[in-house]
Design goal:
With about 260 residues, the chain is an alpha/beta fold. It has helices at about 5-15, 90-105, 120-130, 145-150, 180-195, 210-225, 240-255, and strands at about 75-80, 110-115, 135-140, 160, 175, 200-205, 230-235. Helix 1 (about 5-15) runs antiparallel to helix 2 (about 90-105) and helix 5 packs parallel to helix 6 (about 210-225). It is elongated and about 55 Å long.
Length: about 260
C-alpha cells in the first residue's frame, strides 16, 4: 500500500534514496555460469534478444503531502543498511542523502544501522523502533519480512522500504521505487553508438526486478541507436563481490562484447 506520509518524511525518504541499484529475491530467468555470459535460458527465461520481464508498475514515488514541518515532532530517523558502505555507489549515496536530509530537516537523532545477519533483521528493526525514532528507512527486498513483522506493532512509526513490495497493505509503510530504466536507457544509447563489434554486455548484481529494469532500459537504448546490436547479460549473484564482476566482464569481452 502506498500510505500517505507527512511532507517532512517524504522529503527525508527522497533525500536518502539516491539509489541506482539494489538487491533482493530473484523473479525469474537464469544466472550466468562462472566465467561465461548469460546461461542457456529456459522456455520462460530471457534470451539475448529479449530482456527479462519486470514489474515496471512500481516506478512511482510517494504521494504528495501538505502542511508545514513542525521541528518539535522530528525526534529521530534511522537508515537500515543491508549492504556495506564504501561502495562509492548505491550505499554511499544513500548514506549521504540520509545525512543531508536529517541535517536539513533538523532531526534530533539520526541512526545509520548496518545489518549483516538476516537472522537478526527483525530483532534489529524492533530495537531501532524502540529507540524513539519516528521514521525507519529500510533497504531492499531482504528486509521485506522484518518490516512486515514489525510495522504493525509500531503504528506511530513511519516505515519506508526501498525497491521492495510487501504484497500487503500497511498504513504506516511506504514502498519507494525509481525509474532506473531511464538512466540505463542512456547508457544503452551510448553503447549502441560506440560498439564496433555490434555486441555489448550488461552485468547485474542479481536476477531481480530492479536490476532487470536497468537491463530493459539498457537493452532498449542500445537498440534505439543500433538495430544490429546484440545485448548479452549475466548476473553476479552478489552486490559486494568485485572479483566476480571482473570475472564476468572478462568473460563477456572474451565472447566479443566491446
Amino acid at each position: 500500500m502506498h500510505a500517505t506520509l507527512p511532507r517532512h518524511l517524504i522529503l527525508l525518504a527522497l533525500l536518502a534514496a539516491l539509489v541506482v541499484g539494489c538487491q533482493g529475491a530473484a523473479p525469474g530467468g537464469t544466472a550466468a555460469a562462472p566465467g561465461g555470459t548469460a546461461a542457456a535460458p529456459s522456455a520462460d527465461a530471457p534470451t539475448a534478444s529479449e530482456p527479462p520481464g519486470t514489474d515496471a508498475g512500481g516506478a512511482s514515488g510517494p504521494p504528495a503531502a501538505s502542511g508545514e514541518i513542525d521541528p518539535a515532532k522530528l525526534s529521530g530517523a534511522a537508515l537500515l543498511l543491508t549492504q556495506q558502505r564504501g561502495d562509492r555507489g548505491v550505499i554511499d549515496a544513500l548514506v549521504a542523502g540520509f545525512e543531508s536530509g536529517t541535517d536539513r530537516l533538523g532531526y534530533q537523532d539520526a541512526q545509520i544501522v548496518q545489518l549483516d545477519d538476516p537472522a537478526t533483521y527483525e530483532q534489529t528493526v524492533r530495537q531501532v523502533a524502540d529507540s524513539g525514532v519516528s521514521i525507519v528507512v529500510a533497504t531492499f527486498p531482504p528486509m521485506i519480512d522484518s518490516i512486515k513483522a514489525v510495522a504493525p506493532d509500531y503504528p506511530g512509526i513511519n516505515f519506508v522500504i526501498i525497491d521492495a513490495r510487501l504484497g500487503e497493505d500497511f498504513e504506516n509503510v511506504q514502498e519507494l521505487f525509481f525509474y532506473e530504466n531511464e538512466s540505463s536507457y542512456l547508457a544503452g544509447v551510448a553503447a549502441g553508438l560506440m560498439t564496433e563489434s555490434d555486441r555489448v554486455a550488461f552485468i547485474g548484481g542479481g536476477d531481480v526486478d530492479v536490476i532487470n529494469r536497468y537491463l530493459v532500459g539498457f537493452y532498449e537504448g542500445a537498440h534505439s541507436t543500433n538495430e544490429e546490436v546484440t545485448v548479452c547479460w549475466s548476473y553476479a549473484d552478489s552486490f559486494e563481490d568485485p572479483a566476480r564482476g571482473k570475472e564476468l566482464a572478462l568473460a563477456q569481452i572474451e565472447d566479443g562484447a566491446d
